[in-house]
Design brief:
This protein is mainly alpha-helical. It contains 4 helices and no strands. The longest helix has 27 residues.
Length: about 120
């Protein structure tokens, strides 16, 4: 991803199981179906596991050279980024939560319509 972004990566708290949503903690959780959010998280975990297994197989088959864990993480992140920037990757997530959207109908550049805080 190039250019400035409105997102910031922060370390995630490690959880054994997804926490039940607290609708009072975040107004977004009231709008978005908690079951859909759980399905999306599971799909993302499956996607991460799939990429990890594929990279491990490529490495063990001698098709991928890695010199360090740092390089593995960089390759892993690139692999995930390429998938999530593809219509097929987004279509996979949509299907995982019950939407049948063919890849050619996926919008890879949706507008981020942030609202200004009141009084700003």
């Amino acid at each position: 991803m190039t250019g400035s972004s409105n997102f910031q990566l922060v370390p995630a708290a490690r959880k054994e199981t997804p926490a039940l949503p607290d609708a009072g903690a975040n107004p977004f959780k009231i709008v978005v179906d908690p079951q859909m959010r759980l399905q999306l998280r599971r799909a993302l975990i499956d996607l991460i596991d799939n990429h990890d297994e594929a990279l491990a197989k490529h490495y063990s088959d001698g098709k991928l050279a890695l010199e360090s864990y740092k390089e593995y993480i960089e390759v892993f992140a690139r692999s995930l980024e390429e998938t999530m920037e593809s219509a097929e990757g987004v279509s996979y997530l949509l299907r995982a939560v019950g939407f049948d959207v063919p890849p050619e109908k996926v919008n890879l550049r949706p507008d981020l319509r942030w609202k200004r805080p009141l009084g700003a």
